[in-house]
Amino acid sequence: MAPPLAKFSVTVDDGHLAEMDAVARALSASGMRVERVLGTLGLITGQAPADARPTLLAIDGVTSVDEQLRVQLPPPDAPVQ
After folding, report:
1. pLDDT tens profile 40-69
2. C-alpha to C-alpha distance for 23 and 29, rounded to whole angstroms
3. 6/21 Cα distance (integer angstroms)
Protein backbone atom coordinates (compact mmCIF):
# COMPACT_ATOMS: atom_id res chain seq x y z
CA MET A 1 0.00 0.00 0.00
CA ALA A 2 1.31 3.47 -0.92
CA PRO A 3 2.06 5.91 1.90
CA PRO A 4 -0.55 8.64 2.48
CA LEU A 5 -0.08 11.88 0.58
CA ALA A 6 0.43 15.21 2.30
CA LYS A 7 0.12 18.69 0.81
CA PHE A 8 3.33 20.69 0.78
CA SER A 9 4.38 24.27 0.07
CA VAL A 10 7.94 24.48 -1.20
CA THR A 11 9.84 27.78 -1.00
CA VAL A 12 12.46 28.39 -3.68
CA ASP A 13 15.48 30.56 -2.85
CA ASP A 14 15.98 33.91 -4.59
CA GLY A 15 18.90 32.58 -6.65
CA HIS A 16 16.68 29.98 -8.32
CA LEU A 17 13.56 32.06 -9.04
CA ALA A 18 14.46 32.24 -12.73
CA GLU A 19 14.65 28.42 -12.72
CA MET A 20 11.30 27.68 -11.08
CA ASP A 21 10.29 25.25 -13.81
CA ALA A 22 13.53 23.27 -13.37
CA VAL A 23 12.97 23.12 -9.60
CA ALA A 24 9.37 21.98 -10.20
CA ARG A 25 10.63 19.22 -12.53
CA ALA A 26 13.15 18.10 -9.90
CA LEU A 27 10.40 18.00 -7.27
CA SER A 28 8.23 15.98 -9.62
CA ALA A 29 11.09 13.55 -10.30
CA SER A 30 11.45 13.13 -6.53
CA GLY A 31 7.85 12.01 -6.12
CA MET A 32 5.93 15.24 -5.67
CA ARG A 33 2.79 15.78 -7.73
CA VAL A 34 3.23 19.48 -8.54
CA GLU A 35 -0.07 21.37 -8.55
CA ARG A 36 0.94 25.02 -8.82
CA VAL A 37 4.09 26.99 -9.60
CA LEU A 38 3.76 30.50 -8.18
CA GLY A 39 6.80 32.17 -9.72
CA THR A 40 6.29 35.68 -8.37
CA LEU A 41 6.00 34.28 -4.84
CA GLY A 42 8.76 31.71 -5.16
CA LEU A 43 6.39 28.91 -4.11
CA ILE A 44 5.55 25.52 -5.53
CA THR A 45 2.63 23.57 -4.11
CA GLY A 46 1.68 19.97 -4.50
CA GLN A 47 1.28 16.55 -2.92
CA ALA A 48 3.87 13.98 -1.98
CA PRO A 49 4.16 11.04 0.40
CA ALA A 50 4.12 12.30 3.98
CA ASP A 51 7.67 11.03 4.56
CA ALA A 52 9.13 12.74 1.45
CA ARG A 53 9.97 16.04 3.16
CA PRO A 54 13.74 15.35 3.61
CA THR A 55 14.04 14.27 -0.04
CA LEU A 56 12.28 17.40 -1.28
CA LEU A 57 14.35 19.64 0.99
CA ALA A 58 17.58 18.24 -0.50
CA ILE A 59 16.74 19.55 -4.00
CA ASP A 60 18.96 22.37 -5.20
CA GLY A 61 17.16 25.71 -4.90
CA VAL A 62 14.69 24.58 -2.22
CA THR A 63 14.81 26.68 0.95
CA SER A 64 11.95 25.11 2.90
CA VAL A 65 9.29 22.42 2.65
CA ASP A 66 6.23 23.03 4.82
CA GLU A 67 3.24 20.77 5.19
CA GLN A 68 -0.04 22.55 4.53
CA LEU A 69 -2.24 21.95 7.53
CA ARG A 70 -5.99 22.06 7.17
CA VAL A 71 -7.98 24.01 9.73
CA GLN A 72 -11.75 23.87 9.80
CA LEU A 73 -13.93 25.97 12.06
CA PRO A 74 -17.29 24.66 13.24
CA PRO A 75 -20.37 26.17 11.57
CA PRO A 76 -21.78 29.35 13.14
CA ASP A 77 -24.75 27.53 14.62
CA ALA A 78 -22.62 24.85 16.35
CA PRO A 79 -22.68 24.77 20.16
CA VAL A 80 -19.75 26.45 21.90
CA GLN A 81 -17.08 23.95 22.82
Report:
1. 999 999 999 999 999 999 999 999 999 988
2. 10
3. 21
Q: Name the burial class of residue 54, with classes exposed (0-12), middle (13-18) and buried (19+) by CB atoms within 10 angstroms of its CB.
A: exposed
> Reduced to 3 states, what is the DSSP secondary structure of residue 69?
coil
DSSP per-residue codes, 12-68: EPGGGGGGHHHHHHHHHHTT-EEEEEETTTTEEEEEEEGGGHHHHHTSTTEEEEEE-
Q: How many alpha carbons fall within 13 Å on the CB side of residue 8?
A: 30
Residues 53 and 5 sit within 8 Å (Cβ to Cβ): no
Cβ-based neighbour number of residue 43 at 10 Å: 16
Torsion of the alpha carbons at 45, 47, 53 and 57, rounded to the nearest 10: -40
pTM (2 d.p.): 0.83
